[in-house]
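Quick bug: ExoP galactose-binding-like domain-containing protein output formatted oddly.
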Amino acid sequence: MKKPVWGLLLLLAACRPDPGPADYTGQELPDNLDPDGGTEPDPQLLPGPFPYEAGQRRLMVGIFYEAGRSEEIVLDNVDSNFYLYENTVYVESDPDHVEGKSADRIVQNGKPWMGFGVHWKQTHNFDAWKTLHVSMKSSDAAFANVKIGMTSGTSTNEKGNPLAVTKYGWANDGEWHHLAIPVADYVAAGLKLNDVSSPFTFAAEGGTTGQSLLLDNLYFTAN
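Here's what came back:
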C-alpha cells in the first residue's frame, strides 16, 4: 500500500470525520445459564485464556468482551460510541471465539483502508489501567499490518499514535493470538492518561471485499 494512503488512514482514525453508524454488536451481558433455563453452565460461555478472578481489577469498554470484570463503561450512543470509520468494515457475530459466547468478525468492505473504534464524548482518567488485552485471529493479507491505538483529548484535537501489534505477538497466520499491550507504550507515543477519549481504535490497510479478522477478549487490567 502506498504511504500517503496509510497516512490518510491514521488521520481518519484520529480525527474521525463522518465516523459512520454506531454499532453495538457484542455489548450484551453473558447469560451463565444454559439456553433452556436450567442451572448447568452454558458450554459455549468461555472464560477466556486468562479467566477473571474475584478481587482483580478488569475493565470492559462496552464491546468485544462478555466474561467477568470488575468495572465497565457501557456503550450508550450518547457519551460512549462504537464507530465504523467511513463504513470501511462491517461487524458480525461468529461462533469461533475464545471468551464469552461468540467473537466478532470484522469484514473488509473493499476500501483502500479500514478502521473502527470506541470513542467517548467525556474523557476518562486511565491512571489505574496498565495493560490493554485483546485476542485476534486471521489469515487474510488485509490484516497483516494491524495497528491498535488509544487517543486522548476532545474530538477536535484528539491525539494518539496507533501501535503496530506485530511487536506484541500478532501474525495473520490463522491462529488465535492473545495480545497484551502496555498502556505505557501509548503514553510514550503521546497519550495523556488523565484525558483518554478513546480506549481502543483499530486500523489496517485495505484489502479484498470479504477478507476478515476475528476479534474477541478486549479488556484492560491494572497490572
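Actually, after a second look the formatting is fine. Residues 1-19, 24-39 have pLDDT under 50 and may be disordered. Closing.
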